[in-house]
Each structure stands twice: as structure tokens, then as C-alpha cells.
Design a protein that fits this description.
With 624 residues, the protein is α/β, with parallel strands linked by helices. It is built from 21 helices and 18 strands. The radius of gyration is 35 Å and the shape is elongated.
Length: 624
């Protein structure tokens, strides 16, 4: 099997008991490396002394994850590195056989609670094994990435717990952010994993691993570990022991050995969730991985302790290695290429209706404005400020309705990966829409003032101030989209689309009002002109109700009195006030949408303490 090394990624999970490795390629394919037909390679070994196998238990190295504390300098440290690198050398050789040449992209899984010293040790071990500079991937982050690739739905902003139960236990709370998963809190206990179960089971069958020589210890440990794994699915097994007759181990012994470990993992889970300042109700799920995740009573203990049933991920021992291969993959493999979608009919209508309404209103406003004293010293222009304000508001609504399309167009040509996520596209699109809408409103003011030869100040005031509340709430939505705290029901396109019925009614209403105020009042047309103005007031009142109130029954109840009031106060002086009222109604509509579809569906997400992620490692071993 010979595949391109240039695009291959090698991920290695050096557990305390076993080492797993996965090769992955940009097309999504993956290959689990095997060692003598087994997907797991023993990590344990003995450090040589003067060319002979070590005879003391202190020289026994559990694996690359465990630095030898007393081998801090000189030959001792060199020997420790050499022995710890042995499993990785076998991984390198197996990977080169598959790929055909050395792999340049290497990831090594490490516990989330590790500090700089242990991470430096792992890099040194990898270097001694002949690997290029590896990327260290935190185990719970790798697990979370694997869950995403297998179809587990983890919305951006959601929290989840990863219980990594191997030789020890490490429980981590993560939050999915816009750029990936971040660790909020992690607690580890080396006495709450498979090693503790092995010791308890060995004591139960009278084969204690606390005494003996290095080779004998390794043989007993292997026998007990195999027996433990077999007892998960068999009632009893025979355990061979060196220099002694074999003994029988049964499932009752395993249950007794597992029970205290399971309760400790459950307690650790509860403590970690509390350290992240969350409750179980805030979690999207609890997932158990690691070589000891399938032990009996573990899931039941976590469920009883926390009130939430955990999910044991299939093939839990390989999950971290599989997930690490997908962390930070090249852009062509992980970044979705964004294309500007062709808007459906409803989205096109949501953009076109306020857009044409804005043009119609500003056109009528310019053509029907009355100039006074054109040839005299005192020159003035009577403009329907209400119509002018509504034209600016409609322009902003049209731009906001096109927000997702604008975001897609910008993201498709942006080199920044953050703009290619859904939240990034929406956020950039909303900000672009607000800027474009405000620019169009300002352009209306400048063009109108120049057209009439008047100061631009009043026009800017009537164009920009009424749309300020909508602009502020739209920016708030952009922040929510960028942080991806919420995903509104129906999607962002539906959220940004203004009520078409209200826009049509308001445009027709203001158009009729302006006609009634500026039309030539011939004696035979006065009645019809006045009726047109009153009908315009009725339509504008209905449009305000349609924007403010959603339930049909309340619309029917409020529309009649408000429409009558609007129809009664139609006049030159009231026209500006009616336009501002409609702009306020639109702002109220936006505030309602922001509250009911973005802020109200779930309580605000609680974050980790401000002092940073909580990380604790209760023993040198850390998690398994």
C-alpha cells in the first residue's frame, strides 16, 4: 500500500498502557496502523542499565507519557528518552511502510492537563524516535473533533464533557467556539482508571503486581489486563501467571475492582462540570472514551452521580487518535468553499420589495416637494419628512434582507478562514448590510439637499436618526452570529427578512398621503383626494400593527383603532411624525425578533471562570 506522504497525516495516541496510531489523508480516508495484527502497541518497557535489563521496579517506564522523574540529566535522561521512544519508532516504521516515505505532518495526543514540562518531554521523545516536530493535540479536543466527523451534533456555543478513562482518568469540559473546541476545565486522577482496576483484580486473584522483577511485573500486568478485558464479555477466564499455576478470575471480581474506580470517575465528572461553572443541564452530552471506557458500572455510576446518561463511543481506545488526525487539517480538506447561493423566491421578494419601496418613496418625495420663493430672497422647500424617513428605513431593510447573500459573496473572496464559517458569513453580511443601508440613507440626504440647494444637515437628521435603533440591533445580531451563541429557528435569512406585507401597506399608505397633500385640488377632485389621504392613513396604521404585533387576533384588535387614529391625523404637519412612528415600529419588530428568536430560546451560556481554564493533575500520570 503506497499513498502520497505529502498529504498524509500521522496521529499518535501514546497512552499509559497502549499506543494507537492513525494515518489520514486529505480526501477523508483513514488507516489504523496495526502491530502484529493488533491496533494497539504496548507502551510499557524497561530502561536498560549497563547493557542489561533493569532489575529494579524503579527502572520500569510505563510509556512515553511518563517522564522518569529522577532521570533529569546526563546518561540517565538519555537512556529514559531512548526507551520511551521505542514504541514511537515502531509507529514510524509502520507508517512509512504504508505511505512509502516519511510522513511530515505528525500529531501527538497529550492530556489536556499537561503543563510545559510534560509537553517538552513528549516532543523530545518524538524527536528521539525520528519524528519531525509534532503538533501536540489535547486528547479531549481530538475526541470532540472525532464526534463531529461521525455526525454527532454539537452546535457552536454548546458544552460537552469528555471522560477519557484509560490507565488513569481525565475528565474535561469543552465549549465549541467559532474556531474550534476550547477547554474550560479539566481534572485528572491516575488512580481512577484501568491501572487501579488491574491492581485490584490482581490482588483479588492473589497475583499482586507490587513485587517482583521488571520482566515478571510486565508479564503479570499483561495477564491481568487481558483477563480484565475478557471479563467484560465472559463470566470467567483463566489467568496464566509466571512461575505459578494459572488462576480463575470471574466477573464478580471484576465488578468489585471496578466499582470504586467508576465512582471516582463519576465524582471527577461532577467536580469538573462544577469547576467550569456549569450544570449538567447546560451540557450537550457526556462521552466516555479510552481503553477502560467499557468497564462495567462506569456509565451507570456517571449517570447516577450527574443525572445524565453518558455515551460510550464505539472503539473508545482509537477515538483520540482518529480525531487528532482531523484537527487543523489543510484548508482544502476542512474549509467549506463558500459560493453565493441563488436566493429563493421568498428571499428575493424580501430583498426586492423594500428596495423598490425605498426607490418609489424617494422618487415621489423629490418630485412632489414644493418650492417656495424660487425667485425671491427667501427660498424654502417643503419636503414630506415622513416619506423621506421611510425611504431611508426601507433601504436599510432591503440591505439587511440581503445580509446572508452579501456575507456569502464576501466570504467567497476572503482569505480569512473565520469568514467562511456560518457565523462568520452572517456576521460579516449583517455588518456590510448596515454599512450599505446607512450609506444609501446618507446618499439620499446628500442628493436631496443638492437637488434643492439646501443645507444637508436636516436631511441627514431625518435620514439617519430614525434608522439608528435598527442599525444598533442589527450590529447586536452580528455579534451574536460571530460568537455563534445562538442559531435562530428558521435560519438567519428568515430572521433578517422584514415583514413584506407591512412594507407594502406602509409604502402604499405613505404614497397616498403624499398624493393627497400635494395633488392639484380641483373642485371636482377634492373629495377623492381627501379620501385617498385617509385611506393612506388607514394603510399606514395597519402597517404599524403588522410590524409590531405577530398574532393575527391581536392584529385584528389593534389595527382598527390605530388605523382610524392615523387616518384622522393625516396632515402636512403630521406626515413626518407618521414616518417616524413607522421607523419606530420597524425597530420594535427587530427588537422582538432579536429577543424571541436569538436571546429567549435558551438561557445565556455561562462561561468558565475569568481566571482561565481550570486544569488539575492529581498525579504524575495524568489521564490515561
Amino acid at each position: 500500500m503506497d499513498m502520497g506522504a505529502g498529504e498524509a497525516r500521522l496521529s499518535i495516541d501514546c497512552g499509559s498502557a497502549g499506543t494507537q496510531a492513525v494515518l489520514a489523508w486529505a480526501d477523508g480516508s483513514a488507516y489504523v496502523l496495526s502491530f502484529d495484527g493488533n491496533p494497539s502497541l504496548h507502551s510499557t518497557s524497561s530502561m536498560p542499565a549497563n547493557g542489561q535489563a533493569a532489575r529494579q521496579p524503579e527502572a520500569f517506564i510505563p510509556g512515553p507519557r511518563h517522564p522518569v522523574e529522577d532521570a533529569t540529566a546526563g546518561d540517565a535522561r538519555g537512556d529514559a528518552l531512548e526507551v520511551a521512544a521505542a514504541p514511537l519508532r515502531r509507529v514510524v516504521a509502520a507508517a512509512e511502510r504504508v505511505v512509502g516515505q516519511p510522513v511530515r505532518d505528525v500529531r501527538v495526543v497529550v492530556p489536556a492537563g499537561w503543563g510545559p514540562r510534560r509537553r517538552t518531554w513528549m516532543r523530545q521523545v518524538a524527536h528521539r524516535a525520528g519524528l519531525p516536530q509534532p503538533r501536540l493535540v489535547e486528547a479531549p479536543v481530538a475526541v470532540a473533533e472525532y464526534l463531529l466527523t461521525t455526525g454527532v451534533r454539537v452546535p457552536v456555543g454548546a458544552f460537552l464533557v469528555v471522560c477519557d478513562v484509560g490507565a488513569g482518568a481525565e475528565v474535561t469540559v469543552l465549549r465549541r467556539g467559532p474556531a474550534g473546541f476550547e477547554v474550560l476545565a479539566t481534572l485528572a486522577d491516575a488512580a481512577a482508571g484501568g491501572t487501579a482496576v488491574d491492581h485490584a483484580l490482581a490482588d483479588a486473584i492473589g497475583a499482586s503486581t507490587g513485587e517482583g522483577q521488571g520482566a515478571s511485573l510486565a508479564s503479570v500486568a499483561d495477564s491481568v489486563r487481558v483477563a480484565k478485558e475478557a471479563l467484560v464479555s465472559h463470566p470467567a477466564v483463566t489467568v496464566p501467571l509466571p512461575d505459578r499455576p494459572p488462576v480463575i478470575a470471574n466477573s464478580a471480581m471484576l465488578d468489585e475492582a471496578v466499582r470504586p474506580v467508576a465512582w471516582r470517575v463519576a465524582q471527577l465528572t461532577q467536580e469538573t462540570v462544577a469547576a467550569a461553572e456549569l450544570t449538567v443541564g447546560d451540557l450537550a452530552g457526556i462521552y466516555c472514551v479510552g481503553g477502560s471506557a467499557q468497564l462495567p458500572h462506569l456509565a451507570a455510576a456517571i449517570a447516577e452521580h450527574t443525572g445524565a446518561a453518558p455515551v460510550v463511543v464505539p472503539e473508545p481506545g482509537l477515538v483520540a487518535a482518529r480525531g487528532a488526525a482531523d484537527v487543523g487539517a489543510v484548508d482544502t480538506a476542512t474549509v467549506e468553499r463558500v459560493e453565493a447561493p441563488v436566493p429563493p423566491v421568498r428571499r428575493a421578494a424580501a430583498i426586492a420589495v423594500p428596495g423598490f419601496a425605498s426607490l418609489a418613496l424617494i422618487w415621489q418625495c423629490l418630485l412632489t416637494a414644493e418650492r417656495h420663493g424660487t425667485l425671491g430672497v427667501y427660498y424654502s422647500v417643503s419636503v414630506n419628512w415622513g416619506e423621506f424617513t421611510m425611504a431611508a428605513a426601507m433601504a436599510l431593510l432591503a440591505c439587511l434582507a440581503a445580509g446572508t447573500v452579501l456575507g456569502s459573496l464576501i466570504a467567497a473572496r476572503s482569505p480569512t478562514p473565520g469568514t467562511r464559517t456560518e457565523g462568520g458569513r452572517v456576521s460579516v453580511g449583517i455588518l456590510a448590510a448596515v454599512s450599505l443601508g446607512a450609506a444609501i440613507a446618507g446618499l439620499y440626504a446628500v442628493v436631496t439637499s443638492q437637488y434643492f440647494g439646501m443645507p444637508v444637515g436636516p436631511y441627514l437628521k431625518w435620514a439617519l436618526w430614525p434608522i439608528a435603533p435598527v442599525s444598533v440591533m442589527a450590529v447586536a445580531m452580528a455579534v451574536v452570529a460571530a460568537r455563534q451563541w445562538r442559531s435562530p429557528h428558521g435560519g438567519w435569512s428568515a430572521l433578517l427578512a422584514a415583514p413584506t406585507g407591512s412594507i407594502v401597506a406602509a409604502t402604499l399608505g405613505m404614497g397616498l398621503i403624499q398624493y393627497s397633500l400635494t395633488a392639484d385640488r380641483w373642485p371636482d377632485r377634492i373629495l377623492w383626494i381627501d379620501i385617498a389621504g385617509r385611506v393612506g392613513g388607514l394603510l399606514l396604521g395597519v402597517a404599524v400593527v403588522m410590524a409590531v404585533v405577530t398574532p393575527l387576533m391581536f392584529r385584528l384588535i389593534l389595527a382598527a383603532p390605530l388605523a382610524v387614529i392615523f387616518a384622522a391625523i393625516v396632515s402636512r404637519r403630521a406626515a413626518g411624525m407618521l414616518g417616524v412612528i413607522y421607523a419606530i415600529a420597524v425597530a420594535t419588530w427587530w427588537a422582538t425578533r432579536l429577543w424571541s428568536r436569538v436571546l429567549r430560546p435558551a438561557p445565556p451560556a455561562r462561561t468558565a471562570p475569568s481566571t482561565g481554564p481550570v486544569r488539575a493533575d492529581l498525579s504524575p500520570g495524568g489521564g490515561g
